[in-house]
Amino acid sequence: MSRRFRLVLFVVVAPVFAALFFLAARGLPDFGSEFHPYGDRAVAVATGQRATANVVSSVNFDQRGMDTLGEEFILFGSVIGTVVLLRPAPEEREVGRREAGRVLPTTRLAGYLLLPVTVLVGLYVIAHGQLSPGGGFQGGVVLATGWHLLYVAGRYAAIRRAAPPTVLEITESAAAAAFAAVGLAGLVVGGAFLANFLPTGSLGDLLSSGTVAVLNGAVGVAVAAAMVLLLSGFLEQAVVLRRANGEQEPM
Amino acid sequence: MTTLPYLVAGWLFLVGCYGLATSRNLVHTVACLTVAQSATYVLLLAVGFRAGATAPVFSDVPVGTRVVDPVVQALSLTDIVVSATVTAVLLALTIQIHKRHGTVDPDELRALRD
Predict the structure, then answer these.
(1) Cβ–Cβ gap A54/B59 under 8 Å
(2) Do the Cβ atoms of B56 and A56 come within 8 Å?
């Protein structure tokens, strides 16, 4: 498809979509209305029987845990895809990375100071996923960000030493498997896949919500490992790999 | 204007599609796809909004407080995760295309193939 053809296609299809979408939007309940039957039921179950203060976490990891298992494996599959796509080509070789090329001392200091804060926030967001806004997905990304503060601080070689890709791949796989294992344990103990078989405690306690907290932990580890793998894959393209003839990658 | 937030979602989707149709750079194409996908976040959150209600988290507010719909928020979270991972795969593909062909312009790539 040439650009002209794509543009013509867009000009033809866009007004049709716009008209249909406008009619559909007119048929929706008014913005801000009181009509949320599924939401009301989800809130009632989460705050009552399941003792999960963060209803979004309850929907994600308990009431619709099956969907999140699928989501977890989408993440897993796309990380595998990216790692495979970004593997070094035969004509590329790794060049030695100069340790801390042109990093300002202040940047390095900021990196080192922010690293423990970021890791602590990441762990907090994962551990309180059942209580306050956040959870495994959000906290995992925060944890991975902490890792890359080391890169900003000019410690790329240290990152590679501390977390070789093999270790990350195993961690990612183990965390995804742990999610499925909790689901199977629910099948054995509770009679249904991903059944919430642990004691739910009382609303608002750190040890409440049963399997939601466990699954949040597994997802947090999986997402952190996945993000570090993805970002280090891209960093490797920019920092480590060069064509074998020594020519600089133009990107 | 009780339908305005829904129409914003439709507009975002069309803007993203326009970018996809006219893109001259695959990195820009991926960014346009992200814009089109963000229309779904706006639509989902607009559908779940309840006037004057708070977030569906009961750690600070008593049970029984009016809250917005948590189901669509959970869907948005799934949506964002999938969007981020798809973006990573597409950008990795773009890097490989650039290595193989030395260009990321869809029309130049087409010319190479013909």
Answers:
(1) yes
(2) yes
Q: What is the pTM of this model?
A: 0.86
Cβ–Cβ pairs < 8 A, chains A and B: 160
3-state per-residue secondary structure call for chain A: CCHHHHHHHHHHHHHHHHHHHHHHHHHCCCCECCCCHHHHHHHHHHHCCCCCCEHHHHHHHHHCHHHHHHHHHHHHHHHHHHHHHCCCCCCEEECCCCCCCCCCHHHHHHHHHHHHHHHHHHHHHHHCCCCCCCCHHHHHHHHHHHHHHHHHCCCHHHHHHHCCHHHHHHHHHHHHHHHHHHHHHHHHHHCCCCCCCCCCCCCCCCCCCCHHHHHHHHHHHHHHHHHHHHHHHHHHHHHCEEECCCCCCCC
**Which amino acid type is present at position B100?**
R
> What is the nearest CA distance from A68 to chain B, expressed in angstroms?
7
C-alpha closest to that of B73 among A60, A61, A24: A60
A193 touches A187 (CB < 8 A): yes
Question: What part of B 57-96 touches A (C-beta under 8 Å)?
Answer: 57-59, 63, 67-74, 77-78, 81-82, 85-86, 88-89, 91-93, 95-96
CA distance A189 to A50: 17
Split at pLDDT 50, 70, 90, the class of A14 is: very high
Mean pLDDT of chain A: 85
Prediction ipTM score = 0.86
Q: Decide if pLDDT at A160 tops 80.
A: no
pLDDT of residue B114: 64
Q: CB contact, 8 Å: B113 with chain A?
A: no
Residue A58 in contact with partner chain B when CB distance is under 8 A: yes
pLDDT score of A251: 44
